[in-house]
């Protein structure tokens, strides 16, 4: 249980926790496109850029496999602090040794650090909130997190990928997050001995079988999010020309800014509508936006506030809000269906599948762009999203039948 606090203290501790995690997002969203652009400047192909990016997600997978052991033993607070220290160390080393093979190791360790932070943080927030307001709290969490994800690409568009400055900014964000996290120590969750022993008996596969649709959304989200962070700006520059680097980065940060304003409304809807169908709706809207994107991208070259200029940024804003909504609704459903040590296991599976999706995504999209040209970017993302939407729609439409069968047996 959490330390007993009066409501005001508890609220302030929650705000500190969410603010700390959002600040780390600045570091993550800054380094993804900066590292991809740096590798392209060194002459590496899209396939090799994607392969290098995938190393971070191997780290995420490793943490997810160990989360049900690490978190109950160390607690959320200490796990996050370890992750922050590891992330800061890797951000200092990346610009020091600019070697493709060495970056595999550094990005693997950076993935472990970031995953320790976000796996523990997502579970911690979900563990604390009540189900009747879970959607709104997770909406607030995603909103503040998206603010961090928006700031990173804005900074990156004005910083040279060949300098130390982007990485030092990332380290600064991690240091600020460490300071912000201190008040949240008061709401750490202590697991009982029984929970720890139960953790040894449980298998991640059992949790996955209980809610495959929700948890597979993390894999799909991992593919889409990692691919957009790694290649959306490169795709834009391929289509419009290298001189439009700022527009390429804007595609990333405009979507993130739109997500800031849409996550609380989506969380509010998640407390009032069927969360399963809301998840399917977010995926469908995201897929539709990505399908339209190549046809409206030229509008970014039109005069500001013209019809075609507005259209491209409306499409990007919709995809940003829908993409973040996939995470908000997905993590809300995880908190709804699992509790205590099982919630740790469920979030571990969520992170594991996100890591697998993130590992596959950049490599898949990079290869598609190398062999199909720029159009490989939207085509590969659409295949993944449409496949998941069909699967999730079928599962959601037959859910009542499965529940009725389960209750009768």
Q: What features would you describe in this structure?
A:
This protein has 409 residues and is an all-alpha fold. The protein has a single domain (7-408), classed as MFS general substrate transporter like domains (Growth Hormone, Chain: A), CATH 1.20.1250. It has helices at 7-41, 46-74, 76-93, 100-128, 134-156, 165-181, 193-201, 204-210, 212-240, 245-270, 275-296, 307-337, 340-372, 376-397, 399-408. Mean pLDDT is 86; it is low at 1-6.
Q: In the CATH hierarchy, what is the architecture at level 2?
A: Up-down Bundle
CATH level-3 fold name: Growth Hormone, Chain: A
Report the average pLDDT across residues.
Answer: 86
CATH homologous superfamily (4th level) name:
MFS general substrate transporter like domains
Query: How many distinct domains?
Result: 1
Rg of Cα set: 20 Å
Q: Give helix % range.
A: over 70%
**Largest sheet entry:** none
Total of DSSP H or I helical runs spanning 4+ residues: 15
> Tally of extended strands?
0
Low-pLDDT windows of residues:
1-6
Order of helices and strands: HHHHHHHHHHHHHHH
Backbone shape: globular
Classify the beta-strand content into a percent band: under 5%
Q: What is the level 1 CATH name?
A: Mainly Alpha
Distance between the termini: 34 Å
Structural class: mainly alpha
């Amino acid at each position: 249980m959490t330390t007993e606090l009066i409501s005001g203290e508890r609220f302030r501790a929650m705000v500190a926790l969410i603010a700390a995690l959002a600040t780390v997002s600045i570091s993550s969203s800054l380094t993804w496109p900066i590292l991809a652009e740096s590798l392209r400047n060194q002459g590496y192909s899209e396939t090799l850029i994607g392969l290098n990016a995938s190393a971070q997600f191997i780290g995420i997978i490793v943490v997810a496999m160990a989360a049900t052991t690490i978190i109950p033993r160390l607690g959320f607070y200490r796990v996050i602090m370890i992750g922050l220290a590891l992330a800061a160390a890797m951000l200092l080393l990346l610009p020091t040794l600019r070697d493709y093979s060495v970056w595999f190791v550094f990005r693997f360790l950076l993935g472990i650090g970031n995953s320790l932070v976000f796996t523990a943080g997502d579970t911690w927030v979900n563990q604390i909130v009540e189900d009747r307001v879970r959607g709104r709290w997770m909406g607030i969490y995603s909103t503040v997190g998206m603010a961090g994800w928006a700031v990173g690409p804005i900074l990156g568009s004005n910083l040279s990928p060949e300098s130390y400055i982007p990485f030092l900014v990332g380290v600064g964000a991690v240091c600020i997050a460490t300071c912000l996290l201190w008040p949240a120590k008061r709401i750490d969750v202590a697991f009982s001995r029984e929970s720890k022993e139960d953790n040894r008996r449980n298998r991640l596969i059992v949790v996955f079988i209980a809610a495959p649709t929700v948890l597979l959304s993390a894999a799909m989200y991992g593919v889409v999010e990692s691919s957009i962070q790694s290649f959306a700006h490169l795709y834009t520059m391929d289509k419009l020309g290298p001189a439009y680097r700022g527009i390429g980065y804007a595609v990333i940060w405009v979507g993130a800014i739109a997500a800031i304003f849409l996550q609380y409304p989506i969380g509010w809807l998640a407390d009032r509508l069927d969360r399963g169908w809301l998840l399917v709706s977010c995926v469908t809207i995201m897929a539709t936006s990505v399908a339209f994107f190549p046809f409206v991208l030229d509008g970014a070259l039109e005069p500001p506030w013209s019809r075609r200029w507005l259209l491209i940024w409306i499409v990007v804003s919709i995809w940003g809000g829908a993409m973040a909504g996939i995470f908000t609704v997905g993590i809300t459903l995880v908190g709804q269906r699992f509790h205590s040590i099982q919630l740790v296991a469920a979030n571990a599976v969520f992170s594991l599948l996100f890591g697998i999706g993130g590992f596959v995504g950049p490599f898949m999209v990079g290869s598609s762009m190398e062999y199909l040209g720029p159009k490989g970017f939207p085509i590969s993302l659409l295949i993944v999203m449409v496949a998941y939407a069909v699967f999730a729609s079928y599962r959601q439409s037959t859910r009542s039948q499965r529940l009725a069968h389960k209750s009768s047996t």
